UniProtKB/TrEMBL annotation:
Binding-site positions, sn-glycerol 3-phosphate: 11, 81-82, 133, 242
Superkingdom of this protein's organism: Bacteria
Example GO biological process: glycerol-3-phosphate metabolic process
The name this protein goes by in its record: Glycerol kinase
Carbohydrate kinase FGGY N-terminal domain boundaries: 5-249
SUPFAM superfamilies membership: Actin-like ATPase domain
UniProt family annotation: Belongs to the FGGY kinase family.
Gene that encodes the chain: glpK
Keyword Transport attached: no
Entry function: Key enzyme in the regulation of glycerol uptake and metabolism. Catalyzes the phosphorylation of glycerol to yield sn-glycerol 3-phosphate.
Length: 495
């Protein structure tokens, strides 16, 4: 029986899952890797950690599934987006640590380009803002700071890629330098209207176009793995950035459908179909997926800190040992205290886009303790999600009334109930919450001919639980107003 192997390379860990032909999960393996913080606001990964962890969990998942490699019909890849790598085409050796999407070192460069009036042109072509979040300014920084890199790039000796390209390169033994349309759309270098790398924007960042990978559909032929990795070559048949893969896994194939994924960050996508909607509320216009050469667009809101705020409680403050402890703490919090945590540890994302902001806590008293901080941390995710959905509905009134959720934090019933309460709308949690890996597996299965077309796949989507709003509207609005006041104060302190 044919199976599918899904590789999910995330910000803090790499994971692999094996699905059967009906997209039922059979086995998984996961491995965390170190984060590097060389300066305030800087975040890096060792490229070898990304590759070694992926190779390890992929083999481990196949072994756990108890199937021979010959039964794997294809591999799907999904990945943390915007993270930027540069490597030698001949040796495959990286020239620097990967600069992670959270990294803010290029804030001054982006501010200068905005001041020079370039943002309207860049936004019209890429759907993105001039922000250090995206790959373009990170790649310029590498070319500026790695000795001889730009000259070598012009000679065609170097390759740039987001994490998907780095994994494809290593999986295929350097035979394929490619990316998919969704990852390309997050680089700040890709014209999403014309589906091509944009020469003028590359020139703006002084980026030689010889560096760039070939852009393919999300379900396409990306070559085959080296035979020594699994004992035989396995075709790579699907690629999508993590949030777009989750959109596919949530079967959000109809315009107006929305999903929100809660991992390290939080990312909400609204399917706008063939309409490339320009946001008036500083949301991003992006590619949801490209299948059969046809592009489906989306509005996206990006929150930099979601699950990462729970990691901060664990690793930074030592208040918990395991993420699962936060729900019990939140439930035990004093209802008479009303802490508000603005988790702007690496700046504020959509719809504010203030990279210079830093985190703040409001409402502390002598009686504030771990329980109150844990509750405020979980509530911050709901508040930020409402910020995104308010902006989406202002840009595109046809947005649906139900939000589909997934990712690690979606398993917390307390957090999802608060999310429904603060949105004043239903929140649907699917039977399979690991929709990012599911979406990548589906794309590979679609290309392999194992999986049905999108409309049939959508009919098979299964609901595990619907959370309905339970708080009175006046309480909801008062809580949200307090959040908005806290965000405003945080931005005022940042200047």
């Amino acid at each position: 029986m044919p199976h599918l192997l899904s590789i999910d390379q995330g910000t803090t860990s790499s994971r692999a899952m094996v699905f059967d032909a009906g997209l039922r999960p059979l086995a998984s393996a996961q491995h965390e890797f170190p984060q590097h913080y060389p300066a305030s606001g800087w975040v890096e990964h060792d490229p070898s950690d990304l590759w070694v962890s992926v190779a390890g969990v992929a083999r481990a998942a196949v072994e756990k599934a108890g199937i021979p490699a010959r039964d794997i019909a294809g591999i799907g890849i999904t990945n943390q987006r915007e993270t930027t790598l540069l490597w030698d085409r001949r040796t495959g050796q990286p020239l620097h640590r990967a600069i992670v999407w959270q990294d803010r070192r290029t804030a001054d460069l982006c501010a200068r380009l905005r001041a020079e009036g370039h943002e309207p042109m860049v936004a019209a072509r890429t759907g993105l803002l001039l922000d250090p979040y995206f790959s373009g300014s990170k790649l310029q920084w590498l070319l500026d700071h790695v000795d001889g890199a730009r000259a070598r790039a012009r000679r065609g000796e170097l390759a740039f890629g987001t994490v998907d390209s780095w994994l494809i390169w290593n999986l295929t033994g350097g035979r394929v330098h490619a990316t998919d349309a969704t990852n390309a759309a997050r680089t700040l270098l890709f014209n999403i209207a014309e589906n091509r790398w944009d020469e003028e924007i590359c020139a703006l960042f002084d980026i030689p176009m010889q560096l760039l990978p070939e852009v393919r559909d999300c379900a396409a032929d990306y070559g085959a793995t080296r035979a020594d990795l699994f004992g035989r070559e396995i075709p790579i048949l699907g690629v999508a950035g993590d949030q777009q893969a989750a959109t596919v896994g949530q079967a959000c194939f109809s315009p107006g459908m929305m999903k929100s994924t809660y991992g390290t960050g939080c990312f909400a996508l609204l399917n706008t179909g063939a309409d490339r909607v320009a946001s008036s509320n500083r949301l991003l216009t992006t590619i949801a997926y490209r299948l059969g050469g046809r592009t489906t667009y989306a509005l996206e809101g990006s929150i930099f800190i979601a699950g990462a705020v729970v990691q901060w409680l664990r690793d930074g403050l030592g208040l918990i040992r395991h993420a699962s402890e936060t729900q019990a703490l939140a439930e035990a919090a004093d209802p008479g205290q009303d802490l508000v945590l603005v988790p702007a540890f690496t700046g504020l994302g959509a719809p504010y886009w203030r990279p210079e902001c830093r985190g703040a806590v409001f409402g502390l008293t002598r009686n504030s303790g771990p329980a109150e901080l844990a509750r405020a941390a979980l509530e911050s995710v709901g508040f930020q999600t409402r910020d995104l959905l308010e902006a989406m509905r202002a840009d595109w009134p046809d947005a649906g009334g139900v939000l589909r959720v997934d990712g690690g934090m979606a398993s917390s019933g307390w957090t999802m109930q608060f999310l429904s309460d603060i949105l004043g709308a239903p929140v649907d949690r699917p039977a399979v919450t690991e929709t990012t890996a599911l979406g990548a597996g589906y794309l590979a299965g679609l290309q392999a001919g194992l999986c049905p077309p999108p409309e049939e796949f959508a009919r098979a989507w299964s609901l595990e639980r619907r959370f309905a709003p339970a708080r009175p509207a006046p309480e909801r609005e008062a809580r949200y107003a307090r959040w908005k006041t806290a965000v405003k104060a945080t931005m005022e302190v940042a200047g």
